[in-house]
Amino acid sequence: MNELFDSFWRATAYCLHPRVILWSLLPLAVAGGVVAVLGWAYWESTLSAVRGALEQWSLVTSLLQWLESIGANQLRTLVAPMIVVALAVPLLVVATLLLVALFVTPAVVRMVAARRFPGLERREGAAWWQSLAWSSACTVAALLALALSVPLWLVPPLVLVVPPLIWGWLTCRVFSFDVLSLHATPAERRFVIGTRRWSLLAMGVVCGYLGALPSLLWAVSAMTLIFAPLLVLVSVWLYTLVFAFASAWFAHFALAELQRLRSAEAAAAAAVPTLQPSPSP
Predict the structure, then answer these.
(1) Does 52 fall in a domain?
(2) Is 108 among the domain residues?
(3) How high is the pLDDT of residue 193?
(4) Which of 25, 74, 135, 250 has its CA 20 to 30 A from that of 172?
(5) Residue 216 reports pLDDT greater than 80
């Protein structure tokens, strides 16, 4: 637990570093720009399409008529925007995660290694395309799990548990691989992840709950939907900072474990000659 808390506070301090804040602007410029352009071009047409699809369902039509009968016309007009936002947020999170894993995580790992582990040898256990392939495969698995778990979201307690657990698993799998790809061999990476799987998963779940915080911007008030384009940019930046924090947290924890592993191996190798019997005269 001391190792978890130590790496947590170190990662928090790193997120306040000007370089980390500047690095977080790159995914913001890419994902935020794309989402802002798509929102400006297709927001109204998407709302119209969703409203048209809802009107085809008799059950939804009855619900909308009931809302109108009780004077909740405002809620009726907000149904389509809420559906669009609910569908867009997971895609936004995934896009931000992949951009951070591709651009920000390597820079954060190099920074952590240079400041805290300057003597740790880089053994280049995985190329950038392997990290990208691993992140993409884990992302597809997480999206499938989210899609299959949607019925569970109708149970009030589970909606607060299931999605963060899935995001936590995804964060754990992606960042555990990425932070060790520059310094660890495949065997070392498997050993560190295998021996610390529960600690890494706990870190991922914490980051999953932190990643849910930007979504609260949409839940503050229904009026926030009016400022959707601006809130999309703010959400992207907050997601980027959360994932940058995750990169630093996993880097501090995993590289410390890797250094301990190599120190133990070096100590064992140095002790071997002393155990050999001395040659007979």
Answers:
(1) no
(2) yes
(3) 95
(4) 25
(5) no
pLDDT over 90 for what percent of the chain? Answer: 32
Question: Per-residue pLDDT tens for 108-141?
Answer: 999 999 999 999 999 988 888 888 899 889 989 9
Does residue 107 lie within any of the structural domains? yes
Q: What domain range includes position 120?
A: 2-32+85-264
Mean pLDDT of the residues in the chain: 82
Kindly write down the DSSP assignment for every residue of the chain, as one continuous string. Answer: -HHHHHHHHHHHHHHTSHHHHHHTHHHIIIIIHHHHHHHHHHHHHHHHHHHHHHHT-HHHHHHHHHHHHTT-HHHHHHHHHHHHHHHHHHHHHHHHHHHIIIIIHHHHHHHHHHHH-TTPPP---S-HHHHHHHHHHHHHHHHHHHHHHGGGGGSHHHHTTHHHHHHHHHHHHHHHHHHHHTT--HHHHHHHHHHTHHHHHHHHHHHHHHHHGGGGGGTS-GGGGGGHHHHHHHHHHHHHHHHHHHHHHHHHHHHHHHHHHHHHHHHHHHHHHHHSPPPP-
Count of the separate structural domains present in the chain: 1
**Residue with the larger pLDDT of the pair 52 and 165:** 165
